[in-house]
Amino acid sequence: MEGPSLVILKEEAAPFIGKKVLVASGASKLDKDRIINQTLRDLKTWGKHFLMVFDDCTIRIHYLMFGNYYINSRHPEKIPKLTLEFENGEWNNYNCAAKIIEGTDMDALYDWSSDVMNEAWSPAKARKKLAAHPHMLVSDALLDQQLFTGVGNIIKNEVFYRIKMHPESVIGALPPAKLTQLIKEARNYSFDFYNWKKEGTLRKHWLAHTKKICIRCNLPFTKKHTGLNPRRSFFCTNCQVLYTPKDNEGTAVNK
DNA sequence: GAAAATGTTATCAT
DNA sequence: TATGATAACATTTT
User: How far apart are CA A16 and CA A94, in angstroms?
Assistant: First the structure.
């Protein structure tokens, strides 16, 4: 699950805010008794971290690759990792990692400005952080949760396709305007993802992820694991430009 | 039916 | 002690 999906969950679970946990159950090892009778005070997301803020602690849920949830219904056979029952409904979470964080001050723990879905998102800070990693491949940069919190592999592939950038381009070699475009589109596509996911049309809007043919060029895509975080990249070598350092710059000159 | 994938963190080893 | 490798989680799609 990528960042935008958690924002959708936050909206779907909003009716539970202000309600008391009547029953907490599930396969998770976390101390479920701890939150019984606590009121759900707030729901927040930091990229792929989902935060349920209670009276004196917070539950952090990560849905990883296969996690999902059912609100006011449950999976026909699977056992939930964590179920919360309130007076107005139940919330079942599956295949996720759940953990209790002591305290409720998430502002002290999370930097919201790095989250592409957050209103506090700061392109300027992103740019500054990127400048500190001139040798990083753009493919790794977009997946780096400290740089583009909430971006996942689908968003990565679609962003590079949109801005016509080869995923193995190097941060330090990007022309300033191209860097601007990368930062801008990381957030912009994430909101498209959010809207399409909500209307159930996300997959049909994919132009690169899992695709075989580039519709701009009518040529086959390259499918390759790129970067140090070797996730699948789908790209067109004809229209997606590879930005690499010139031989005599970017690194110490060897003579 | 095997393999890979919308991903990260805890733990172990060096 | 710091860094890096490995295990763990566990379902759907190709």
Answer: 18
Give me the CA A143–C1' B9 separation in Å, rounded: 16
Where helices occur in chain A by DSSP H, the ranges are: 3-12, 123-131, 138-143, 153-162, 176-198
Question: Is A82 found in the same domain as A165?
Answer: no
Q: How far apart are CA A196 and CA A190, in angstroms?
A: 10
pLDDT in tens, A189-225: 999 999 999 999 999 999 999 999 999 999 999 999 9
- Strand C bases with any atom < 7 A from protein Cβ: 9-12, 14
Please write the tens of the pLDDT for every residue from A75-110: 888 999 999 999 999 999 999 999 999 999 999 999
Tens-place pLDDT, residues A113-148: 999 999 999 999 999 999 999 999 999 999 999 999
Distance between the alpha carbon (CA) of A135 and the C1' atom of C1, Å: 27
Q: Is the CB of A152 under 7 A from strand B?
A: yes
Other beta carbons within 10 Å of A253 = 7
The CATH number that applies at residue A84 is 3.20.190.10
Domain coverage including residue A102: 3-108
pTM surpassing 0.90?
yes
The total domain count for chain A is 2
Same domain, A159 and A171: yes
Nearest nt (C1') to A48 (CA)? Answer: B7
Is A243 domain-assigned?
no
